[in-house]
Every structure is written in structure tokens, then in C-alpha cells.
Fold this sequence. Notes:
Chain A is mainly α and about 475 residues long. Chain A is built from 22 helices and no strands. In chain B, helix 14 (about 400-410) links the parallel strand 14 (about 390-395) and strand 15.
Amino acid sequence: MTTPPFDPARPVPAVPTAPAASTAPVPAASMPAATRRAPHVTAPPSPSPYPSAAPVPAGPAGPAGPSESAEPAVPRQKEARRGPVRDRYFDLLRAVALFRVVLYHLMGWAWLPVVFPSMGVMFALAGNLMARSLKRPAVQVVRSRMRRLLPPLWLLGVVGVTGMVLQGWGPNEDGHPGWWWFHLVYWILPLSDPPFAESVPGIHGILGADWAAELGGPLWYIRAYLWYVLLSPVLLRALRALPWLTILAPLVLSAAFQFGYLNLPGERFPSALTDFSTFGACWILGMAHQEGVLKRLPRYIVPSVAPVIAALGLWYAFREGFKTGYDLDSIPFAQAVWSFATVLLLLHVSPSWTEWPRRLRRWDRLITLLNSRAVTIYLWHNVCILIAATLWDQLWGFDVLYENVPWLLESPWPVLAIAWLLIGSCIVWFGWMEDVAAKRRPQLWPDGGKRPAVGRGGQGRRDRPGAGHRA
Amino acid sequence: MASRTGRHGAARSARGGSRPRLPLRLLLPLLLLVALVAMLMLRGYVHSEILADHRVQPPAATTDVPEKILEGGPVIDARGGRTESLSVPDHRLVLTFDDGPDPTWTPRVLDVLKKHDAHAVFFVTGTMASRYPDLVERMVDEGHEVGLHTFNHPDLSFQSKKRIDWELSQNQLAITGAAGVRTSLFRPPYSSFADAMDNKSWPVTEYIGSRGYLVVVNNTDSEDWKKPGVEEIIRRATPKGGKGAIVLMHDSGGDRHQTVQALDRFLPDLKKKGYEFDNLTEALDAPSAMTPVSGAELWKGRAWVFLVQASEHLTDGLVVGLAIIGTLVIGRFGLMLLLSGVHARRVRRRRFRWGPAVTEPVTVLVPAYNEAKCIENTVRSLVASDHPVEVIVIDDGSSDGTARIVEGLGLPGVRVIRQLNAGKPAALNRGLANARYDIVVMMDGDTVFEPATVRELVQPFGDPKVGAVAGNAKVGNKDSLIGAWQHIEYVMGFNLDRRMYDVLGCMPTIPGAVGAFRRSALEPIGGMSDDTLAEDTDVTMALHRAGWRVVYAENARAWTEAPESVSQLWSQRYRWSYGTMQAIWKHRRAVIEKGPSGRFGRVGLPFVSLFMVVAPLLAPLIDVFLLYGLVFGPTDKTIVAWLGVLAIQAVCAAYAFRLDREKLTPLISLPLQQILYRQIMYVVLLQSWITALTGGRLRWQKLRRSGGVSAPPPGADGVPPQRRPGAVDGRRPVG
């Protein structure tokens, strides 16, 4: 979690009682951080969203050769000829979602996931791309998806598990060495949550004691994503046969869990299924958008219905006692309904920008970078937040600061800045793995900055008036 | 110049031609709304509907309370670091009344006290004192003392020092505003005897003492709020053995008739026993606790009381308004359902006929201004008509080659007449002069007829008394949200409103998109007039006054394109509502005339005014109270009531859709329509009212003239038109 070594001088808000309800069993020891952010880690990026947004143009050569989308600018030019074009609107959504995740994991504001339900959005975008890719043979698509998703996780695992073992984590952790070894397999193929040490000492002054939990917390997303990918061929078939039934089925499942009609034994199985049901509707909505299911509706339907659904979700959340520390993450059904409604609206609005609108043009490189390194940022951001908070807390040791600017030491904003600096360095250190996974030339800082001038200026000016605004 | 082009001009300026006007037209409604909301907030505040805190501290330890306070008298003096208690001398009784003033019971308490020549202390709350300032003034005038009891009665031990200060100063402000005095007496809410002070309440008492107040608790608690019966109240209130006491009673917070009755016996009884009933400072032989206030403080207090009074009266007015609008809305729905049912049954009877079948050829007038995009569809749909027609397209100075397109089609029986841009009424009059036949159908350049439309539309002329017929205009572009909302509005307007008006014989408007007239009826009244922005309403009213019947032909369907942006919708509706007001005003003399004109003037005109001009003006009240109810509660009931109104709307709409054989799916957007679309509509109406009341005539003239120089038409320079101007002109569908 963010700042385990809390200075006693700092007011520590009451620890929320809600434990890691769904996935990612966060050990109780890590709870202090839960005051700043919910135990259940939210929001995720689509693995390798950047290249996948321009899905491998299905050449006869089979899965993406290294030439495929070597860097953002190139695919765009190619795709102008080949067909699929990056939808900048989706890029924007993904970047906002990612930024929101980091912000939320630091601040823990309950209203943030309401304002922008990042996870639902991310899953919807990923589902959309998945449906787009599934025009090719399913086995091939699933394999290429997994190849993109897993290597960055392996890199995290190599660093993380090594660190945990060095700090004393081992087969005798919970008395079942066999299980310990077996569970390690989940670091390679995360069909269930990869295991992590319940308590490790950390590095004083730099890395808080709960770093392993911080590291492992967000991995539920990778596991959920993997399952969606594996099930997508089936889901797509169901979607084509019975569109709305398929879209709503996860919501029904989620309701069944919430209202206790469905109880499963153990921990790993229910948590996987809860996450699946919570965001399944969003994933399938993304697929439905790609399949044109939404376009077949009269345009007035979605804006008329979505607010009502959203209101229902919010009403349920408040009925269940929505508050800081007990937010949408702790109420999966409310999360499912609210995310569904929001995603429905966002997809309905979807203006399909092939070029940035003028106001957003200045953000192009930042958004491109966030998109190119979404998985890396997502996997590493929690540890970065923890280090940033631990470092910042060191300042309490300086009496001058403590006496004169306690507000500054308590402020989370400098921590946010430091966290993003650290995330930036993670992009440099670990981001290349995403390129390797996509069989691309590794890059340190893929913000599309080296793009040829033609791609931006010339084309941009020409396209500006028509940019596909739908009334 | 032309109202038609004028409208076009208006639409453009709304889009950005004259930016400064945009805020102005919103400013007045907005100011009104802000004032209204502020007043409602104030009311919610003095009615303890906001910021009220009903928690009560459970008893706590008494270790921090000085012994002498616990064992001392009921008047605690903690001013300036003192810690003293005072007691009331023997044979003196100080009656204290908490929580008032109350409009019902306080006057009776005061009457009884006066009757027995007794003085007392009233600990008033700020909310009640603000609402009933006259009673506070009366208390002071009649020699009683008033004390503070906080602004809205929270348990102060839960509150911050800031809130305590605020509670005291607001309460003081209300007393000053009501009676022009300040007081230094204070009684804490939920207090009782001095020995009930505990670790929670004592710090508050000390703090309030440090602010310069005497804290007054009591010796005997009548517990009258439990309504234990007169005997019991007297028993509890009476001190033992001739001792002095401060007696706690209440003059507010419920039925207090027992208190009043008890007082009426208690006072003379104890007087006989030698008791005196004084106010506190008299009993303690101290200088009065109240000091007169003057200057800024006094005016601040008076302003506060005035504002609260204003908000009280305003809300009373609003409630009356709400009752009126509620009755109107429900009554109107009832009437609509009833009469439209009657109408539908009447015209759908198997052997229903207006008269002999009308088979003679008719003239169709198509006024067109820059309709290049759709004129071809329009004209072709007419030519495909199953009734013999002569089509006259009057090109009102289009610059996009509308006329050439029509001529290029080379269709038989289609004539084009060109004129310099002069407006829609002028174009129609020109067409009328060129029409070959007696029956004239009028439509818009962007409207498409079905093959049967013309035939269905002219059948009512089989009845020689019918002078004009309204067709059934339908929204063609109902795919978008705003389109669906207008679709609902059109269907309801035609199938409920217009049927009702038909039965009542006061159809106010023949839609410009689809209507038919007898030329012999139009000519005596001078054809179309450009006196108003709504020439169709104007001419319809003129026909009524001339004694003609105006009826609705449900099967004469015309598909028109509704505005697709809010600003276009806004300018369209602004013209409609303002034009209707102009037309009503133009024909106002009908009210006092004789014959058919008088009949229309005394039945139709008031009816139309009520439903089209007055009722929509009060409609925002529903939303204001919805918001008020949501914020200040009872939230659940408010939501249920709103859903109830929505259900009535939905039933009516579903009925209308069924009458028109429309699919019900667009009704799914009805809830959202109720919280977005309707509001736009009445802000538009409000704006029309403001225009009408503030030299509207002048403004309208200007508006029309500015239209004459309307900018180059969209489409001429290769830019696709944002909207076809004709659609903006689509005539009112909704009666």
C-alpha cells in the first residue's frame, strides 16, 4: 500500500472494515493504505492497448510480423491503406482511465470511480478490440493476445518474486510447500491470482513493508482479462445469436452473487467469478459496439435508458452504505450496474476520432505514451505509489519541515508527482517488454514523438472540419 | 419583411450571430430562478429542514462539573470566569416557556399571563422568532423577557464553538429583528436541572457564559410536552414549601392546550398562596436582561425578519400556484382523454362521413425558401397523390436554386412562381392568388405527403360549414433523442390536444406543414397576415371568428423534419409561443363581440390562453417543488409523487400513440423528457412572456427586419446546411 510507515504524527483515518472482498486478498497488515485507497484494486489497462488498438492486420503471413505497427505513426499510415484506424476517442478514454486508476489508488476518494469507472471502460475497450481481432481464427487471436499480455507480467514476477524470496518468503510460508510451489504457476499463467508474501520487511525509508501485497493487488485484473480473452470466442458467438441476453447475462450473474442466490466454496473461485460477472457486461458491450449491436438501436434508446440504469446502480450503492473505504469496489453489483450504464453511454457517444480534435492535440504524445505502456504502468504503479509515499514520509524526520509546513507533508499531491516520476522510470526500465511481447523493436519512450510531419500537420488540417462528429 | 426569413434570421442569430443577446434572454429567467431557489432555501432553513440536528447526548459523568454548580440554583453565571449559581427567592416564581413562539399557543399563553397580571420568560428559537416576529414583539411589550434558545435547537454539546457562536448570533439577530432588543439570557436545548449538568454540557455552559450570557435551567419541570393532564402539570410545576422556583413549560412544539389550562388555574391558586410571578431579572432584583438595539444591528435584524417573512409568503403563493397547476394539469389530461376518445369514436364510426365525398381537384401551395435538399421529395410525393392536384411551388427568393430544381423535374401539373424574398405569408398569398381551385392545401417545403394525404385532408370540406382542416404532422427524424422527444410531443399534441380542441370547436392552429383551406373562407379575411410571428394561428383564429368550423383529419399524415439541435428548437418554439401570444392579443376583441366571433372569444380564446400561455408558465413549479422536496425532504414521497405524475403522462402518451397506431418504443425517453425537454420549453415561454411584457412589439419588428438581410443560405457555398430552414419553420403541430 502506499505509505505503510505512517508517521505517528500523521492523522490516520479509521481503517475501513471492508476487507478485500473480491479478488486480490490483501493481507490485513496492509490495511493502513486502505485508508487512502480501497483494498480492491481497480482499473486496469488493456494489455498492450497500443498495438492492439490497431489489431494485427490479418495478413496471410499469420500473426503479426515485427513490421506490424512498429510505432504509432507507422501503423496509422499503413492502416490508412489497410483498413482499421486508431480511434483516438478510445485512446483518450484509456488514458483517462489509467490516470484515474493511479489517482484513485493514491487518494482513495470514493467518488472517483463513480465519476469515471475506469475498469469498466478498460474492459469495454479491450472487448471491443478483441471482437475486432476475432475476424481471424480464434485460436490464433487468443494466442497472440496471451503473448502480448503475459511477458510484462513475467517481468514483474521475476523482479517481485525474487524480492519476496530474498526477504524471506518461501515454500514454508503457510505450511503447505506443495501448494506454494503449485501456486507459483499462476505467476506464469494467471488463471488464478498469483500469490504473494503476506508480510515482508521492505526496505526502510524506501519501500514500505507491504510492498508484496501492493505488487500483487492489481494482478486480479490480468487474471480477469485472461479469462475474458479465453472466453471471447464463445462470448462472441453468443453475442451474435442472442445479443441483449448475452450482454445482460453477467449482470444477472452479478446480482445472483450480490443477493446470495449463488455461493461458491473457497476463495479463488468465487473471486474470479465475481470479477467476471462485475465487468463481463462491459467487456461484452465493447464487443457489441464492434459488432454494431448498439447501432441497430434507435439513437434515443441509450440516452433514455442508461441514466435510469445508472441511477439504479447508484441508488443500490447508497443503500448499501456507500462511503470512503466502502465504495463501488466493495459493492460489486453496484459497480457492475454503474459501469455498465456509463460504458453504454460512452460507447453511444463514441465519436470515432481518426484525428485528434484541436483541443486535445496538445495531449497527443502523453496519451500515446500512456496507451503504449498501459500494461507496464498498471502493473508497476502501485509499487511506485508505495515508494513515493515512503520517500515523502521521510520528510517527517526534518523538524524544520514538520514544524513549519506540516500541511505539505500531509498533502498527497507531491506524492502523486513523485509516483508519476517513478512510473516514468518504470516505463524506461520495464516498458520494453511490451514491445518484445508484440515482437516489435523495443523502445524506451514510445510517445509517438518521432512521427513524420505529414501524419500530423498535413492530414490534420485536411481532416479537421469533417472529423466525424455525430450530432 | 418576411416573417419566414425573419425566423430564419432569428435562428441564425441564436446560433452565434449576436452573442450578447444569448445571456440576456437567459438572464431574467435565470435571475428569477436564483431568487426563487434562494427564497426556498431560506424557508427550508427556518423550517429546520436543513442543517437541523436532532441528536441528543446521552447522560455523561459529572466529574468535571464544580460541586457548587451541581448543588446550586438554576441560574448559572459563568461570565468573565465566574462560577456562580443564583436561586430565585422564596415566594417568587419564574415561569419559562421554551421553543416558541408558536402561532396558535403562544398568543393564548400570553392572554392567560395578561389576565393574571403575570410576567414570564420566553426562550425562543431563532427559526420560530423569525417566522413569528409579531409574537416576540408582543412578549417584550407586555413586560416579559425573552431569552435565547439557539437558532434551530440542536444539542450544543455536539456542536463546534463556531456553530455555537452562530446559533447564538442568528438567534439574537432574529430577536433583534422582531422586537428591537438584545437579550443576555440563554437556555440550552434539552436542558433540565442544574444538577443534571455533566461533563458534556458543562463545557458548553462555561463557553456560553464566557460569551456574556446567563445560562438559565430550571427547578421544576412541568413536563407539559408529555401532555400528562392539567392536574399533573400543576403538581409537577408547583415548588414545595413556598420556595422560589424557575418553572419549565413549553408554548410550542405541539398541542399545548393543557399548558394553557394549567396556567389558568395555577396562576390564581399560587397567587393566593402569596406567590409573585415575575420575569427573571425582576425576581432576582437585577437590571433587565434586555437592552434596546439601534443602528446597523437593528436594520440587519429587520432585514433578516423581512426576508424570512417574504420567503414564507412566497412559498405560500407557490403552493397555491402548485395547486392550480396540479388541478389544471390533471383536469386537462382528464378532459383530453375524454374528448379525444369522443372524437376518435366519432370519426372512426363505420359509416362516418363529413358529407358528400370531395373529388374535385385541389391546389397545393408549397412555399419554399432554400429547400434545395428536400424540395424534390416534397414535390414528387405530391405528384404521387391519389387525389387530383395542382401544385404551385412559390419560391421565396431562394438562393440555392430551389426553383430551378423543381422546374428541372418537369413534372406535369407543377408550377413554380418566383418572388423576391417577402416571407411565408406573402408567398402563400401569392400562391392563393394563382390557385385555380377553391380548396387550397398548404404545406412546407420540407414536408413529405403520403399518397392519401391530400384526399384525406380535403374530405371534411364535404361539410359546407368546415372552412379549414388540420392534418396530422408527424416527425420524420425521430431517431435522435431530441427527435424522439418531439415525436412524443407531436403525437400527443395531435391525438389528444387537437382532437380535444376539435370537439370543443376552438382549434387554435392549423399546422403549416399540413392544412387545407377554403379559398372562399380565406379571401374575406384577407388571406394570410404577417401581423404575427404565427400566421397559421392568426388565420385559424380569424376563420373561427368568421364562423367557420375548423376540424382535424387524423389520416392526413405529413412527414416533417423536426429541429435537431437545441438552438434551432429554441428559436422555433420561441416563435411559436410568442406568435401565439401575439395572435391571442390580436384577436382579443372577440371576447366582447357578438355572433360566432364572440362565441370563439368567450370559449375558445380563454381556453387556449389558459392551456397554451398560462398553464405552461406555472409548470416550472412542479420542478421547483420536486427539487425542494428532494433536497429538504420528504424525499421518498416527492419521488413517488413525481413518478405518479410521470405515470399519468405515460398513460396519456400511450393512449395517444395507440390512437395514432404508433409504436410505443419512443416512450422510453419520456422520463428523460420530463427532466430536460419540458424545462427548455417553459424557459422559452418565459422568454416570450418577458419579450411581450417589455416592449415586445418593437423587438419583434426589429427581429423581422434583421431577417430580411439573412445571410447567404447554407448550402450555397458548398457547406452542407446545418439544417434546412424550412424545418425550422415547420408550423406548430401542437395545439
